[in-house]
Every structure is written in C-alpha cells, then in structure tokens.
Amino acid sequence: EAGVVQSPRYKIIEKKQPVAFWCNPISGHNTLYWYRQNLGQGPELLIRYENEEAVDDSQLPKDRFSAERLKGVDSTLKIQPAELGDSAVYLCASSLRDRAYGYTFGSGTRLTVV
Amino acid sequence: AQKITQTQPGMFVQEKEAVTLDCTYDTSDPSYGLFWYKQPSSGEMIFLIYQGSYDQQNATEGRYSLNFQKARKSANLVISASQLGDSAMYFCAMLAFGGNTPLVFGKGTRLSVIA
Fold first, then answer.
1. Helix (H, G, I), strand (E, B) or coil at A23
2. Which residue does chain A place closest to B47, by CA atoms?
3. Is A62 exposed, middle or buried (0-12, 13-18, 19+ CB in 10 A)?
4. Which residues of B52-90 are buried (b: 16+ CB within 10 A; e: fewer)?
5. What is the pLDDT of residues B73-110, one digit of tens each?
6. Of A16, B52, B65, B84, whose CB count within 10 A is highest?
7. What is the C-alpha separation between B108 and B89, in angstroms, rounded?
C-alpha cells in the first residue's frame, strides 16, 4: 500500500510569489490534515478535512493561505503571496475516521522563501 | 486544551546503550492516545509507538517501549540498544478522543547516537 504522497519535496521561491503543495492521502482515509513545522519546532495544524469538508481551519492564515480537497481525495495547499516567515516544512497526514489508529504522514515539502 | 512538554532539546547516547526521552502531557479528557514519532533529517514523520490512556500494560514495539505513568501524566520513550540510525528528532504527541481536537505535538528532542 502506498503511503501519503506529497509533492514537491523541496521548493525555493522569492517572496511575494505564489506556491502550491499537493497531497495524495492513503486510500480510504477520510481525514486529511495539513501541518506546518517551523525549524526546531513540532508540527502545528493548519487545516483538517473530513472527506471534502474543512472541519477545522482556525489556524489557517486565510489572508494568504487557501486549501481545497476536491472529491474528498487529493488536497492542495496554496500560499499567495508567500512571505519570508512562511519558510517551513509543510506536512500532510491522513487517518481513518477512528483516529485511535493515529496519523500517517507524508515526507513533507520543505519551502524556502528568499 | 491539550499540551505536550518535552524538556530535553538534545540528548546524547553511546551506541548500544539505552536512552529515555521525556514527555509530559496535560489534558482534561479521560480518553486519549499518546504517540511517539521519529523524524530523520529527510523530514518524514515515522510512527514508532502508541499508548492508550486505558491500556493496562506499557506499550512495546521492538527496541521501543513507552514508560506510561498516568498519575504523573508522563509518557517517556525508552530506546534500548541504541543504533547510529536512531539519530533523529523524536516527537511526543497526544490525541484526545473526547473532543474534536487534532494530534498535538511537543517541540521534540534531538537524539544523537555516538559510536
């Protein structure tokens, strides 16, 4: 079984440019998460989807960040325009509805804004 | 609100020795799960071990064991017979099952295994 797939693995952009990250969760996992991990910190939730519905986006900076999960499968996270402080690792994870099984994480996208 | 505290920013251990990584947590939810993840320099989060709040036995997975002390709200990870490949960041995380909260992480501990 394939794990959570994220692309790209690395991205370097100039500030004020747009950027998008893509995530394909494990087949059958209803719940999808986007986390941001700043250097030297633990991951922090940006947004959580149950199927195609965003059920928790309270930590998503909505002025510049947007996300979508069309058809309840793949998801895209976008930043427009990017700022220097957005440099971080963006992790996607998925889980079954019964969260006791925990989350499976992708390899992450390391974003550097210059 | 849930909170995870990892007080050791960095740890060193000699190869083949055992090491304990500390984790304390705070929650008002009686039903919760505790997780440990390993994050190598490549960046992926690798699940290591899980402990449920109602589990009677401490969890073990190969060389990993979880020292769960519920009254103290601690869930320390013990790695036995350390290997060079164990050098990585280790994160403790908690999931409260009663509410609708996501997995919450600590700040992590960087483990360095010395030959």
1. strand
2. A104
3. exposed
4. ebeeeeebeeeebbbbbeeeebbbbbbbeebeeebbbbb
5. 999 999 999 999 999 999 999 998 887 788 999 999 99
6. B65
7. 6
Rounded Cα distance, A107 and A56, in Å: 22
Instruction: Tell me the two tokens of residue A7.
Output: 């692309």
Mutate to test the interface with B, among A99, A101, A110 (most CBs of B within 10 A): A99
Tokens of A88: 């971080």
Token pair 């390391």 is at which residue?
A110
Chain A positions in Cβ-Cβ contact with residue B88 (cut-off 8 Å): none
CB–CB contact A42 B105 (8 Å): yes
**Chain A / chain B CB contacts < 8 angstroms:** 57
Query: How many Cα atoms sit within 13 Å of A34 on the Cβ side?
Result: 31
Place of tokens 């004020």: A16
